[in-house]
Amino acid sequence: MRPEPVPAIARRLGISERHLRDLFNGAVGVSPKRFARIDRLRTVLARARTDSWARLAVEAGYYDQPHLTGEFREAMGVPPGSFVTGHLPTPTPCGTSRPLGPSGGHRTIPAP
Question: CB count, 10 Å around CB of 85?
Fold first, then answer.
């Protein structure tokens, strides 16, 4: 199910799109679009071990699996398959790409 577009919600509420975005950002801390992307990734993560990536992509509203993979990699730093198997990027301080750990590469977290 796709979320209702911001312009439609603003019209229904009788406010401008900009005002709605400002209210949302102030209350939630991110824009409505960013929130929708995060929520979509959370949906994928919740079902990652039960469905194929292609099926998850379509059901979560992505155009196809490569779009899911690209957005996931952008947000999480690794492709979805690596993430669910515990192969995570090395942590970095906010606003940098310099690794925190001595390895300088990826780390592995045991899968639950």
Answer: 13
User: Any residues with CB less than 8 A from the CB of 18 and at least 6 apart, and which?
Assistant: none
DSSP state at residue 94 = T
Using DSSP's 3-state secondary structure scheme, residue 100 falls into: coil
Determine which helix (DSSP H) or strand (DSSP E) holds 1, and give its type and residue range.
none
Asked whether the beta carbons of 45 and 73 are under 8 A apart, the reply is no
pLDDT score, position 84: 87
Percent of the chain having pLDDT more than 70? 82
pTM: 0.69
Classify burial at 44, counting beta carbons within 10 Å of its beta carbon; exposed 0-12, middle 13-18, buried 19 or more: buried
What average pLDDT does the structure give for the chain?
83
- Contact (Cβ atoms closer than 8 angstroms) between residue 40 and residue 61: yes
State mean pLDDT over 16-28: 95
